[in-house]
């Protein structure tokens, strides 16, 4: 190392140029880093959507979902296949291992899907892959409004607005970089509807197939190549496309007695509305048309929203006068607030660290050198982050904020040693160059080893899997980058700056440090004379701390405050879309009456294909809040949520779950349900699953802290079943396909073709007039053709009955699944789940072939803790090996290692005092704490050994080393503590995730530093290694 430092100091100009280059490049890279609220935690997942209009969930599951699901299970890299079969729609989610490329995953799913097409029934649209987005991909939402004076061309306002959204707005916004799809929801889709009069049809001896064939044959264009006329070519086109309602009415079906029978003679042809399964309302006042923007997988949220905000004015300018595009939600506010919180904490922490440096070093120039290391390390980190294509988010910047106090540690030791030796009389005859080289060489090895230990301590974070791995690995990376930067700053830049700024000469000890030493020395002497008492007392305190562990609550990750409320409402399974809309609008009006609420936007049911398959009894009320300083009645969001829950719970026939937009998507990613906790019940029979789920719900309802408890409302959908009587069909000569044709075409209706208006296209739907199909009695009287042409009432060949069936069927692990879901408030997740498991174990007996699992945040919490319980001991072994390599003997390494478990004392007490739970962030805090405890112990023990090698006796070496290393140990501890104080005290958005970590490290370092300066000196005599005295 001596040669290295001589080389550095001989080339000071090059090093200074390099330092300036790092500052310039780092600043540029930091400013160009993309920003996000969270790392993208979404799994590699490919959704498959299949629409089969009119099919019930049972047929969807049997004919579509199961064949697709079975095909996907054997794909390489697949970890899980989930599916939902709903009315008219199947969605299959194929999950892959995290190292699988998303485009490769989509390719092999598409190949398998093409191979499975032969097993699927005929559908208007073949199954298709969903958009290339993520579970958190809904980053921007807007709605459309129109002035009362708007000219709509005779169309209803919401039909007009939906047409604008589908054919004008969507296509402009989809060109924005990073946008993969725009989902439309609300309003009505224009449709050409042919409402057939069955009696007129029978009068002219026509069938439904005749209508379908006539429309198809009269609605197409043709190409006839080209003609050469003189010197020019003329393209030949045959024009036969339908354009107007009159074109449809005039389609000839047949000729009777020389008179043409046209479509208008047997049916009403007019504009109508597509059957819709989704509605959007606002403030309980009106329906609106909304758009949901989904970002492309792998793109940066902040950039996408920035691009959208730039494009919105252009889109607005292209809309008719009086139509307004109003954004009502985007993730940028959360991103900016979360980043602002961490940046503030980073700046404030750095400021506090600099104050501590000045206080302890007692020399402005020394403090300046160390203080400069902090931004340099952060900028080096930004350079590495840019190269690694990482975003600046709550976790990555949080890593730098956590490390800010540690970043100066290496430079502190270097500069403090240089400063001390420059004033040491023993070095009066040596040049400043020689003194600096000697000072740096003396501490370089312990610095490298101590920083390496801190880096190794964070290795467990790299091994975490799933959501927790994606969440915390960016933090581990940035801490590692920053600590590597601290070595570069300490070993390259600090010696050069010290050679320029520090001078030789006697040092007068700064009064603050002098006072501290006056207090510490007598206390140290007392400790050394009462070793046994000190050790026993420490062990008793440690044992008392361990007794507190069962009283600490546990959770996965603290809930991030988003500043918005989302109320998930589940209504009766049999409810109609019209009634569901009325109900939600009433609830919205109640919510709007609360202080602090700015506006509400509710989504009922599902948007167009390519999104979730929510039924019409499911709704999400998004509650946008005013700034909190404008609130009068409530002091916190929690109070508002409690008041809303109390008021809305009085409304009959609904189940409520309070959440937040991103938390909602986050919870759904974890367990497939929009709550923190999910109990998944697996089995075959839906009625058994439902009854057992209700039984479990009743048993666990009394559990304290368990709120928003509900079971899936997946059963209870009334069905009108038209069951063919095979004997009667044989007797009358009626083919069963004739009956099914009545069900599909006459009653359900089918889009058989399209009307093209320039690039816009609108469906042509055929079915019976509403009078002949709107009641079971009407359906019974529909006439069907026998094989000899006789018309037979449907009731003669089929039974029409009303039964109760499923509203949707959910599958997972190749089995049907039913979920009991809930949230946890006012108590920790681990304790709540523990009580639930006990009650279920004691009171619930499941039939053969049925079993349950616990999912949601608890599942991830257990997985993370299980993983850490394996990796952390391995990490400790690596740390011990590094200590052995650094110190050269097992006794010293063991002495330092004793301080590691004892560091728990402050961390556990901190969690207990502040009421924070033992979570994954808290576990990360303990990991960091253990590393710092080892680092401080290494600084002290290595110097005691150094003095003994110089010839000092054990007692003298212990006292002298403790007094001389008091400053670096205290500075290391205080800089780390004060660097984290802003995170500990911050109430900003995103601070909830970082606070448990800060609590553990701050409180833990207080106890750990005390033990380093007390317990290690007390124990050293018993662990003192045999050392050879060095000769100068």
- The averaged pLDDT comes out at 86
Quaternary organisation:
single chain
What would you call the shape?
A: elongated
The total strand number stands at 30
**Unreliable sequence segments:** none
The SS-based structural class is alpha+beta
Beginning-to-end CA distance, first to last residue: 19 Å
- What share of the residues does DSSP label as strand, in percent? 15-25%
CATH architecture title of the domain at 514-551 and 888-1032? Up-down Bundle
**Biggest beta sheet summary:** 9 strands, antiparallel
CATH class of the domain at 514-551 and 888-1032: Mainly Alpha
CATH superfamily of the domain at 514-551 and 888-1032: Multidrug efflux transporter AcrB transmembrane domain
